[in-house]
Amino acid sequence: MSVAVVALISVKSDKDEAFRAAAETCITASRQEAGVSRYDLWREAEGEKRYVFNELYSDIGSVQSHMTSDHFMSFAMALQDMVTAPPVILTLNPISVA
Fold first, then answer.
1. In 10 A of CB 65, how many CB atoms?
2. Which of 10, 14, 52, 53 could pair covalently with 42 via S-S, beta carbons 3.0-4.6 A apart?
3. What is the distance between the alpha carbons of residues 6 and 25, in angstroms, rounded to a whole number?
4. Digit-coded pLDDT (tens) for 60-91
5. 3-state helix, strand, coil in the chain (%, to 5)
6. What is the pTM of this model?
């Protein structure tokens, strides 16, 4: 069963460029992983303007593999100095998906 992950990340204003560079490295590697159907980065248009990762995996095992990959672990470590709060991560199961 497909699994979606949405991650909301609030980045310090002076770390925006560093965040984008680190995110791009993670995105490029993540899109090559088996079981990853989508790995996109968005940004809120209004309000806090958090970054939003929108990810789609073939199954929960693919999510777990991603979360333990070297590139994701490196990205997670880099984030520690860039964020204003811990990321909000939602793991979603499909109900009605086209």
1. 16
2. 52
3. 18
4. 999 999 999 999 999 999 999 999 999 999 99
5. 35, 30, 35
6. 0.93
